[in-house]
Protein 1
Amino acid sequence: MADWKQFSDYLEVRYKIDFKSDSGNIFRLLFNLDGGRSQFVLIGKNGNDKVGDWVDIVSPIGPMTDSQVRQAAIKLSDMVVGGLVCWDDGTACLRHSLSLASFVASDFEWIMEAVLSTADELEEQILGSDAM
């Protein structure tokens, strides 16, 4: 079992933090990928007193039209992790949430890798860019 403080300490030891919010509730990690591509992931605190501490893993794909969002949703239909969400500015993202009550570092790592690599693939396939 982990709480947000233990989890954020783990992040700071294990990863190079590109950005940390003043509250300490949001971290940005930047990853260099094959082919000269890069992708960032936002790790954020979520949850409440009723459900406990959760962590959100969010990797932006980029601004999308309605038809591009539909195309991304179809491509994600057989994924075991992540769901398609959109920010207010129209940026589509892949997001997955984990409870820290049963935190296992290896589970977090493969899920984060799946989220960031899938978001990057969708960005490349649908948008033809590497802005995120």
Protein 2
Amino acid sequence: MKVTYDYPISRVSNETTAIIDSREFCVCTQYDSVLPCGVNHDDDCERMTNISICAECTCGATEKAMENINKEELLNDAKINGKFGAKPIEIKLVSKDEQNRIDKEIEEHEKFKMFVEDGYGDAICNK
């Protein structure tokens, strides 16, 4: 089973997103839980009618999505190779000249924004 991992949408430290054959699974290593992402449940399924996140799937959609997935193997692999928590933010260092250019661009944008918000832009555009 070839698995790749991505950071979870929830950004919590005990979950990771496992991707297997373009299918995504939410893996919670704290509670040894594996649930498929993006499953379409029937309208009368317990997962759709019960507000609790712990509601069981009664329509079979989760079971079908979990076909050929070894839950124990996936949990063990996720504990070692998963990406947990919030995705790291890439920080780019720039030169002082580049920072000055960026600051000037922001300042010009703010001036234009105030110009438009004060109504001057409407006066020019509505002539």
